[in-house]
Write a structure and sequence with these properties.
metal ion binding; tRNA-2-methylthio-N(6)-dimethylallyladenosine synthase; tRNA processing; 14 helices; binds iron/sulfur cluster; binds FE3-S4 cluster; five-stranded mixed beta barrel; S-adenosyl-L-methionine; globular; binds S-adenosyl-L-homocysteine; 23% strand; cytoplasm
Length: 441
């Protein structure tokens, strides 16, 4: 009864958390299996960011529940943001055995020890102001052996009015920089060649404020970059209000800090940004973009955009499209606004843009971004990039793919190349989503 299968939904932080959970369980003698059919316990690490993310998981839970007609011993556990948000309703309404929030993963072995004793569903969802799982070295799941995530902080206290994360992840706290650096060193020694430092707002990373060994985010990046020039460093996510000139200067200094910034805009309208509690104006956002372009040569820039937030009108929507054109994003994640229970927006504003209109605006945003991505990719034709090889193409076993520093995916012939190698690739063709090229010496 000790075979565990972990399924992960949601953001990169959840991927990293699943590896922490795997590590905790392995240490207690549980076996991780990569086949649901071999599992005695299924843990689903979940996301609450939009309603459809939750609906997907609810559907999955009922599929797993019906599996129990044949395998009565199967236990189902829900971890992550839905566990925190929905609490014991997951036990009462959805028949799950275990509910564990993002700061309680160390309790899982203890909770599992009660399973099978007829005590019903078990729950642990207390949020912590200090837990960072600092010393736990993750047990990799579905890893390519080349790229890895390292959580550097947890929680968020920005309280963007639409967002559930501050409620599901709790107070912001930074992880000891020494454990971050040693995790990156160990990954490099194991053959990994790229680490992505993760947090909801990495620019507010701060260890030991006011002390002699204070480390801010720019300093942390430089410490990780100095481990080895062959280790690439990325990070996500930056809040536009907090990204600093010091960070941009550090990015420009180290060749192995990737020239790519994900800077979520959300809306191009000052009125909507204010209602969203984003704490910057469109003008201030554009100033940051200009600083990036001035400081870092050829920096890739991507963003997140929400269509149809409360009271958004066609003028606001037009301002979003304008700013997208002005910045010329290389890529973007684009979403329809989804009201989340108990958030500031749910309490204060009416979700008054119809679903049909949200979809229409979203399609306009997506179409524009497709055009911008295509333009950006066309500019790369003829250029040569250093690419870190990450895997085989899904479409052809004869092709490999990797990314350049700017985070663009490039496909090229396999030849006798291996994952984890750096190659120079000259781009000769593109779509809006992918670059195609050939390796050159
Ligand atoms: N901490 C990160 C991102 C968190 S969630 C940041 O601040 O950038 C990722 C993205 O999901 C957000 O940037 C936002 O665009 C989107 N999102 C968050 N809440 C949402 C909601 N209620 N409806 C639609 N999209 C949402
Ligand atoms: Fe949510 Fe805003 Fe925090 Fe990002 S910064 S996680 S959008 S509250
Ligand atoms: Fe989703 Fe929680 Fe991440 S809500 S986006 S899994 S922090």
């Amino acid at each position: 009864m000790r075979n565990i299968y972990i399924e992960t939904y949601g953001c990169q932080m959840n991927m990293a958390d699943s590896e922490i959970v795997a590590s905790i369980l392995k240490q207690e003698g549980y076996d991780l299996v990569d086949d649901l059919n071999k599992a005695d316990i299924v843990l689903i690490n979940t996301c609450s960011i939009r309603e459809n993310a939750e609906q997907r998981v609810i559907k999955r839970i009922s599929e797993l529940d019906s599996l129990r007609k044949k395998r009565q011993w199967l236990k189902i556990g829900v971890l992550g943001c839905m566990a925190e948000r929905m609490q014991d309703s997951l036990i009462k309404t959805h028949n799950v055995d275990l509910v564990v929030g993002p700061d309680s993963y160390r309790d899982i072995p203890w909770l599992l020890s009660f399973q099978g004793e007829g005590c019903g569903g078990l729950i642990s969802t207390e949020l912590s102001e200090t837990e960072t799982y600092s010393e736990i070295y993750p047990e990799k799941i579905n890893s390519n052996g080349v790229t890895a995530f390292i959580p550097i902080m947890r929680g968020c206290e920005n309280f963007c009015s639409y967002c559930v994360v501050p409620y599901t992840r709790g107070r912001e706290r930074s992880r000891d920089f020494k454990t971050i650096v040693s995790e990156a060193e160990k990954l490099f020694a194991q053959g990994y060649r790229e680490v992505t430092l993760l947090g909801q707002n990495v620019n507010s990373y701060l260890w030991n404020q006011g002390e002699k060994d204070e480390v801010n985010f720019a300093k942390l990046i430089s410490l990780v970059a100095e481990i080895n020039p062959l280790l690439r460093v990325r990070f996500s996510t930056s809040h536009p209000k907090d990204i600093s000139q010091e960070l941009l200067d550090t990015m420009a200094t180290y060749d192995n800090v990737c020239k790519f910034i994900h800077l979520p805009l959300q809306s191009g309208s000052d009125r909507i940004l204010h209602l969203m509690n984003r704490k910057y104006t469109a003008g201030e956002y554009l100033d940051k973009i200009n600083k990036i372009k001035e400081t870092i040569k050829d920096c890739g820039i991507s963003t997140d955009i929400i269509s149809g937030f409360c009271t958004e009108n066609l003028e606001d929507h037009g301002l979003t499209l304008n700013i997208m054109r002005q910045v010329g994003y290389d890529s973007a994640f684009m979403f329809k606004y989804s009201e989340r229970p108990n958030t500031l927006a749910a309490k204060k504003y009416e979700d008054d843009v119809s679903d049909e209109e949200k979809t229409r605006r979203l399609e306009e945003i997506i179409n524009l971004q497709r055009e911008l991505s295509f333009q950006s990719n066309k500019k790369d034709i003829g250029k040569t990039f250093e690419v870190l090889i990450e895997g085989e193409s899904k479409r052809s076993t004869e092709k490999l793919f990797g990314r350049n520093s700017q985070n663009k995916v490039i496909l090229f012939d396999k030849k006798d190349l291996r994952l984890g190698q750096y190659v120079n690739v000259k781009v000769n063709d593109c779509t809006s989503a992918t670059l195609f090229g050939e390796t050159v010496s």
